[in-house]
Amino acid sequence: MTKELIIQRIITALAADLALFSAAAKTSHAAATHEECLPDNKYDTTALEASYIAQGQANRAQEIRGALERFRTLVLHDFDNDTPIRLTALITLEGEDGSVRRIFLGPQGGGMKIAADDGEVVVITPGSPLGRRLLGLRSGDEVLVGGGTAAMAFTIVAVC
Q1: Do residues 116 and 149 share a domain?
Q2: Do 95 and 45 share a structural domain?
Q3: Cβ-based burial of 82 (10 A; exposed 0-12, middle 13-18, buried ≥19)
Q4: How many domains, the chain?
Q5: Tell me: the pLDDT tens digits for 70-122?
Q6: CATH number, domain containing residue 125
Q7: Residue 58 and residue 94 share a domain
């Protein structure tokens, strides 16, 4: 799977999330301002609680809008075995047990999983613990994933 296709799938997923959260925020706002939400007494907080939900959903929609803009204007970089890992790297990690993980280092959208023909690609950000560990490493280097006794060593087998 090419990085261009990964970016396109990320944009598609973010656009769907934006539509969902925008609609939810509008619905929550309408509920918060509906006449049935008017307080019956000073202890009735139904309208206040609904407004908090509407504000949270509107904030999330704004975050997604920002992420969409970052991915739409993202400049992809080319990598080879000697290029240090940085933003837009598509990294293949191989564990001691032979397991393989593919990671895309993006500006936002950490935790998003993108389905690919040959498995899945997980989006991480440079601000995540793994993203910070990977920055500056090259193909052939080793990186620890996780912490404590659950830490597992992975070898960077490819960067593109």
Answers
A1: yes
A2: no
A3: exposed
A4: 2
A5: 999 999 999 998 999 999 999 999 999 999 999 999 999 999 999 988 889 99
A6: 3.10.50
A7: no
